[in-house]
Amino acid sequence: MSAVPATLVAIHQPPPTTPPEHGYGLLVRRVQSEYLEMPGLCLTFDQACRLWALDSQTCSRVLQDLVAEGFVAVSERGIYARRTAV
User: How many domains does the chain have?
Assistant: First the structure.
């Protein structure tokens, strides 16, 4: 009795329909929502990386963008906190 080899089937995955920047925008909104849901949230850079499970490059970009748009401020000690309305 001879064995019949299994037929291999290629799985075609279409290219993603969402541009990578769209995913980044969702990530930024997620971080903003965390700050909005937890008033008084103050994080160091390392804590932010761990909380949102981000690599350091992505986390740095997110925090820099939020600082640039005035949503988050960074203290001299490197603590990231939401800016409050005056």
Answer: 1
